[in-house]
Amino acid sequence: MNTTRVPLITRTDKTVPVTVFARTTATPDRAFEIIAPIDLTTVFNPVFPFPGIAEVRGQSETWDHPGPSRTPRFDDGSQATESLTEYVDGQSFAYELTDYTNILGRLASGVRGEWSFCPDGTGCTIRWTYEFRPLPGRRLILAGPFRPLWARYMQVALNAMVDVVESTGGTRN
Prior knowledge:
173 residues; alpha+beta; 3 helices
């Protein structure tokens, strides 16, 4: 039986990436340790016009290796399927989101999310990219009016995550 996973996005796809950055006094390992398994309901709040995450259902395994999946449910009643596809402890992780039941389901066939944690002096820089795979005829919507709204939504969530990291004192040995 072939268990090779087919990626949602390939090098020939014309995607719409959105990337946000933040810095923290925490080391890359420490920031990763807190953010990778973070409770999504505590950091994804509504940012007009997007809903917050109300709950996460059906997580199949711990969120610390490729393979687990879960269903984030948004406070407007919609949901998506999230699957962890890559995990390099202390450095990066990636996931795919599909089966959106809100407006994103009419704009994109899915999203690849990717996080990286890079040394920056005594702390780290966190980079988070959402790469949308547009449905036919939807690329201009995603690349145009949608992109800055989504970037703001991501930045607010990332800032909330960095606040959680910083509230733990940033560094820990």
